[in-house]
Amino acid sequence: MRTFRGFAQSGTRARVFTWAGGTPPVPMAEAQALRRLLDGDGHSWNFAQNAFTSSKGVLANLNGEPQAGTSVAGRWGQGAMRLAVGEEVEWSLAARLDCTVGFWLRSVHVGPEWTHVVARFGPNVLYVNGGELGITDDMDGELGLVVMPLEGVLLVRATSATVTVSDLVYLPYTVPTAWVPQWAAATAPFGPLPYHRASGTGIPGPFQVLGQALDAQPMEYDEDGARVQGQYLDFELWQQPEDT
Fold it and tell me: Residues 157-175: what's their mean pLDDT?
């Protein structure tokens, strides 16, 4: 278009992109977990702008006087949540018993450095810094807190020490075992769900994106001499304008 004085003027304020991709053959269970990851299923908390509210707007019920916000330093320069012994926070989000919960933790049990914790409640396995520690019931004695899905509620309670929790993530499915060490080694926050952060040599990013899983093609392939039922999974990533 032209301005009043005749100069050329573009109405384009920003250019956003959509990337299409596909996976190599993956086992059926991993393909289903990847589909839910791409679709942004679950909730995340950075405990910054909205304190205890999840990335999808679920409010919390508090017991005691838990703290949350940017006044409590978090793992990624955002906020965090601090609970004294006996204090707890609950979110009613139809929590599933086979869910996966991950977070970064500081407490006297783990020391001053941030420790990454993942609880896969379906197979009942607890991981610390990407390695298997025991079962999920070990959180109380090993970490000083309890995190559990209970009657549709996600509960976080400090049991034997003051704990600081950062980048809390609830996923309503069981993540594959191979994802856990990659999650612990990540160099950015998980959320905010349903958004993801896409980067790599294939895009001029990093960018904030929304994902969508598309068609899946069932197939069989050989793995270590055995026939495996799997899928090819197609997907799209839609770039989102930042700060929206």
Answer: 96
Contact by Cβ (8 Å): 90, 59 = no
Question: Distances in Å between the alpha carbon of 48 and those of 106, 137, 143, 242?
Answer: 17, 29, 23, 17
Element (H, E) at 215: strand 207-223
Helix segments in 81-163, DSSP class H: 139-143
- Give the predicted TM-score (pTM) of the model: 0.89
Sequence-distant (≥ 6) Cβ neighbours of residue 13 within 8 angstroms: none
Tell me: pLDDT of 142 over 80: yes
Q: CA angle 157-196-180, nearest 5°?
A: 55
- Answer for the pair 189, 138: CB distance below 8 angstroms, yes or no: no
Asked if residue 73 lies in contact with residue 80, where contact means CB atoms within 8 angstroms, the answer is: yes
- Phi/psi of residue 78, nearest 5 degrees: -105, -145
